[in-house]
Amino acid sequence: MFQTLYVFFVVRHVNREILHIAVTPYPAEWTAQQLVECCARDRWPPRFLIHDRDSRYDATFERRLRHLGIEQVRTPFRAPRANAISERWVKSVRTEYLDHLFIFSESHLRRAVSSHVAYFNGWRPHRSLGQRAPRDLTIFQIRACEASCKIIAEPVLGGLHHVYKLAA
Questions:
Q1: What is the mean pLDDT of residues 69-92?
Q2: Any residues with CB less than 8 A from the CB of 79 and at least 6 apart, and which?
Q3: 102-111 LR contacts (CB < 8 Å, sep 24+)
Q4: Which region holds residue 19: left if phi is over 0, alpha if psi is between -120 and 50, else beta?
Q5: Do residues 133 and 125 touch, judged by C-beta distance below 8 A?
Q6: Which residues pair with 164 in a beta bridge?
Q7: pTM here?
Q8: Which domains does the chain have, with CATH numbers?
Q9: What is the rounded distance in angstroms from the CA atom of residue 156 to the CA atom of residue 145?
Q10: How confident is the model at residue 139 (pLDDT cuts 50, 70, 90)?
Q11: Which conformational region is residue 78 in: left (phi greater than 0), alpha (psi within -120 to 50 degrees), or beta?
């Protein structure tokens, strides 16, 4: 109770998709391992990693970046616009979801943030993507709907948001 928890996340800048998320109370060696896990198996490592000048990005972190072939780009001091996409995601997850919850444990925060990531990647519209979600690769086609078509609202994130679908 009442301990600081750290959230590590990786955003793909091209489509604003959250690729990896993890939570811990002790981020020392853990941060470098999260980067390795994010780039493992089915993903190619990114060419660049943009991050702030936090002390968590130590020599171990830099060594792992070099082994993965990733070039690190550190943002300037007190320049949130230098990494605006990440800053915007942090604001979104806090104001749209976490400000409405009491977080009781590390596992509770992990579940909460994971559910928001699923909503964010799959459903939340983004102005920079033409009001599409990051994982929405199809171009929406407007279907002619008969008078009998119903739209169903499914609550997500504990009812804070809704996803709208056509009834079958």
A1: 87
A2: none
A3: 103/5, 104/1, 106/5, 106/23, 106/24, 106/25, 109/5, 109/7, 109/23, 110/21, 110/22, 110/23
A4: alpha
A5: yes
A6: 153
A7: 0.72
A8: 6-135 (3.30.420.10)
A9: 25
A10: very low
A11: left
